[in-house]
Design brief:
Blueprint (H helix, E strand, L loop, with lengths): L3 H16 L9 H5 L9 H8 L4 E4 L4 E10 L17 E10 L2 E11 L17
Antiparallel strand pairs: 1-2, 2-3, 3-4
Length: 129
């Protein structure tokens, strides 16, 4: 029977190995959105807090929007080798609007994977009057 000291050593090794499994910086969009101050934060501050946006678009000549997007990985997605075959459990997004160099709006939203399933529900059409 393995000793308690050996088991704790193995557990520490497993935690150490698993903690280094990511190749990309981890975002936490919900908390990152709270760092943005409307009317005070600049583009450079947003870049410092959130990094490069996932997409950007010009709304007008002096107004731009940056979008940050993140998938909530399901437990199955985290499985080695087969994880990519499963879909995410939800999505998170921040849309930041700039007028010139200043943030004028910052909106955070999150969506559950099944949140819009109602749009495929046509049962109401089956009712006979």
């Amino acid at each position: 029977m393995p000793s308690l000291r050996r088991l704790s050593g193995i557990m520490l090794l497993v935690i150490f190995v698993l903690s280094g499994c990511t190749r990309y910086p981890v975002r936490h969009l919900a908390s990152d959105a709270s760092l943005i101050v409307i009317g005070k934060s600049s583009r450079n501050e947003v870049l410092t807090y959130l990094g490069e946006p996932d997409s950007e678009r010009m709304v007008s000549a002096d107004t731009a929007q940056w979008v940050y997007f993140e998938e909530d990985k399901s437990i199955l997605q985290m499985a080695p080798l087969v994880g990519k075959t499963f879909s995410p459990s939800g999505y998170k997004m921040i849309v930041i609007t700039f007028k010139g160099d200043l943030v004028t709006d910052c909106r955070y939203s999150s969506y559950d994977k099944d949140e819009f399933d109602w749009s495929k529900d046509y049962r109401w059409q089956d009712k006979k009057e």
